[in-house]
Amino acid sequence: MSLANLIARETQRFLETHPKSAAQAKALDAHWLFGAPFHWMKDWAAPVVIIAEDGEGAVLTDIDDNTYDDFCLGDTPGMFGHGRPEIARAVAEQARRGATFMLPTQESAEVGALLAERFGLPFWQTTLSASDANRALIRWARAVTGKSVIVVFDGCYHGMVEDCLVELRHGRTRPDAGLIGQVFDMTRTTRAVSFNDIGALEAALAQGDVAAVLAEPAMTNCGMILPEPNFWKRAQALATKAGALLILDETHTLSTGPGGATKTWGLAPDALVIGKAIAGGFPAAVWGVSAELGEKITAAKTSGGRSGIGTTLAGNAMGIAAIGATLREVATAEAYDVMLAGAEALVAKLRAVIAKRALPWCVVHVGARAEIVFAPEPPRNAAEMRPALAQGELNHALHLYLINRGVLIAPFHMMMLVCPATTTQQIDRLVAAVDSFAEEFARESA
Ligand code: PMP
Q: Does ligand 1 lie within 6 Å of residue 105's CB atom?
């Protein structure tokens, strides 16, 4: 059987087990563009959109009563598990007393202190999404440095941030292939460099016109790519020498440890962005800055400047309550211990399957997050990763195969996240499904 036939078989199986989702998908088509409230919801390998019913811990249920071991966790907002009672209580209590006032609540001071203590930067602001936080910091970085250029890494994703929708092709920064609706040339003010290439970073900084380097500590949106030893130490030193700020986007790498990769690896950025899971999945994000950068930002603002930054709901009382509950009760050291141990076990078991089946794949692992990469060695940059990501049929087949065996992983690539509620049985089911797929796949490709 070819991969195409396997996909056809699995598509049939999916449709047989998801009749209510299929019917509901037709109803969605009537008034939602793309047939869903947001078009990414259609990016799964499933032939029709899965209609979610319930989420509890690491289990998701759909309206056909299928249950899934959820290793996607909403692509990270549910990193500490779905339906956490601590978050539900905090949000509901605040909603009863008023959702948003454009005023701080009593709890805000404590939440600021919790952020400072945990992440090691003294001053914070909130937004509704990590995209907004990145956009805000890029603007502040340009304001305080008086420089226009930002440096990002090829293959990056920092959300709906025009400045970052670029890639490196034939040594030049280009808008992302196929990008629609882009009317200004962001390549004039954004420079993309290859991850782990310290020489390229040095060259990108050499003209002295860089306001900030914006990066994930480990890349997680172009497959997963880890920094080489000492990369960040050297990159930090280069940025400082060039007078550029280092902004680390920990939106995904918060899964590395309680203080993100920054704390775990002893990094010293000027600014941090943390979104998605920071409010237990409730829509909120935060950005934090060093004392020095905080002073400069305050000076830029108080010198009569108009920031042009913000949205009415930023800092809303429910979001603050959810962040407080997350930091105090949910994202605890004990929770991380369980997540990290679970991910270690998952990675060891996946690597054993890969070895047993002699697959030309590897597993990249950081903290509670892991990725199966269709390449024998972990890629060091986006150019090396792209051939692995281009195996579209294999990617589609494995995702669909997993869905049909009750396993969800991030729809865009092979990324898995372990939450505090993830059980050994769930890990074993995922590994068994990958193993049986590999057996069929090996049989097919023989
Ligand atoms: N930064 C990173 C590293 C991300 O992975 C994402 C989303 N995948 C974002 C920012 C944007 O987050 P949001 O969609 O919440 O704006």
A: no
Reported as half-sphere exposure (CB side, CA atoms, 13 A), residue 432 has a value of: 11
Domains of the chain with bracketed CATH: 3-80+332-445 (3.90.1150.10), 85-330 (3.40.640.10)
Crossing angle of helices 85-97 and 317-325, in 10° steps, is 150
Euclidean distance between CA atoms 364 and 366, whole angstroms:
7
ipTM over 0.85: yes
Is the CB of 62 inside a 6 Å radius of any atom of ligand 1? Answer: no
251, 252, 286: residue to mutate for ligand 1 pocket, most atoms within 8 A of CB: 251
Tokens of 369: 């997050």
Rounded to a whole number of angstroms, the CA Rg of the chain reads: 22
**Per-residue pLDDT reduced to its tens digit, 271-315:** 999 999 999 999 999 999 999 999 999 999 988 888 889 999 999
What number of other Cβ atoms are within 10 A of residue 109's Cβ?
10
**Whether the Cβ atoms of residue 58 and residue 68 lie closer than 8 Å to each other:** no
- Which helix (H) or strand (E) segment is 421 a member of? none
CA distance 253 to 398: 25
Between the CA of 85 and the centroid of ligand 1 the distance, in Å, is: 25
Q: Are the C-beta atoms of 44 and 406 separated by less than 8 Å? A: no
The model's pTM: 0.97
Instruction: Tell me which residue has tokens 């002073």.
Output: 295
Ligand 1 atom nearest residue 253's Cα: 3
Please answer whether residues 246 and 213 qualify as being in contact, where contact means their C-beta atoms are separated by less than 8 angstroms: yes
Q: What does 347-388 look like in DSSP terms, one character per residue?
A: HHHHHHHHHHTT-S-EEEEETTEEEEESSSS--SSHHHHHHH
pLDDT one-digit tens code per residue, 111-162? 999 999 999 999 999 999 999 999 999 999 999 999 999 999 999 999 999 9
How far from chain centre, in Å, is Cα 335? Answer: 19
